[in-house]
Amino acid sequence: MEYAQLLELAVRARDKAYTPYSDFAVGAALLCEDGAVYTGGNIENAAFTPTVCAERVAFFKAVSEGKRAFKAIAVAGGKAGAQPDPLVAPCGVCRQVMMEFCRAGDFDIILGDSAENMKVVRLGDMLPLGFGPDNLR
Ligand code: THU
Q1: pLDDT at 108
Q2: Which end of the chain is more exposed for a tag (fewer CB within 10 A), N or C?
Q3: Is the whole-model pTM more than 0.85?
């Protein structure tokens, strides 16, 4: 799948985000090595800390279905009900979750709001010197 198309799925996934507290809707679309795509929106909680970001929702959906190999994730976010912001980058916790399942050198993170405004960043550039499974081998 083209990255522009993956980003479009992330933009659409924002529609299903549950954001009564921040009113900031994020969507993510995760592309597996086998071509399958899992989407997610952020899910907030009245107690705040149980809130889960869109990226982790997408990862946990995929991992819980048995997926273990991933190629890229697209992320889009902004005020709920409005057009996405030009660039929203994954939070540190989500970067760490990516580090668990992806090789920092070849997992792509696609940021932007449309095919015309799209940036591709490697996980290793988003999370330099990251700690991951290799450290415990
Ligand atoms: N959020 C995400 O879903 N992904 C990110 O990469 C950044 C932040 C969510 C968490 C919370 O529901 C809202 O955006 C405001 O922080």
Answers
A1: 98
A2: C
A3: yes
